[in-house]
């Protein structure tokens, strides 16, 4: 129960607005396209990691050659959240192993997949 929950909150990060569907204390829920479609940089994800210890991302799309920009941003997001021990919960239209297919970022995405799997582990989830 979070009495201070904020719906549709506009966060200003790097002088750009990022809309969270819901925030409560240091937990936030975002739509995938809000974080990975459009002008975003690693600095955005670093700032989000400083604010939130847990992030939920809904509607993560399958990515490939036509969505390499989104995939690059998603890779950066996972890297920054991983390095800062952010608990990441995603809902996706496909299984993790099928999130990326057939594009130039296949190698980089394999590392991201490995990190996503590790982020589900008890060891990762119990990090401070």
Automatic annotation (TrEMBL):
Keywords: ATP-binding, Cell cycle, Cell division, Nucleotide-binding
One GO cellular component term noted in the UniProt record for this chain: cytoplasm
UniProt record, GO biological process: cell division
Organism superkingdom: Bacteria
Keyword Magnesium belongs to the record: no
Pfam families: AFG1_ATPase (PF03969)
InterPro entries membership: ATPase_AFG1-like
GO molecular function, one term: ATP binding
Keyword presence, Iron: no
PANTHER family in the record: AFG1-LIKE ATPASE, ATPASE N2B
Name of protein: Cell division protein ZapE
Lineage of source species: Bacteria, Pseudomonadati, Bacteroidota, Flavobacteriia, Flavobacteriales
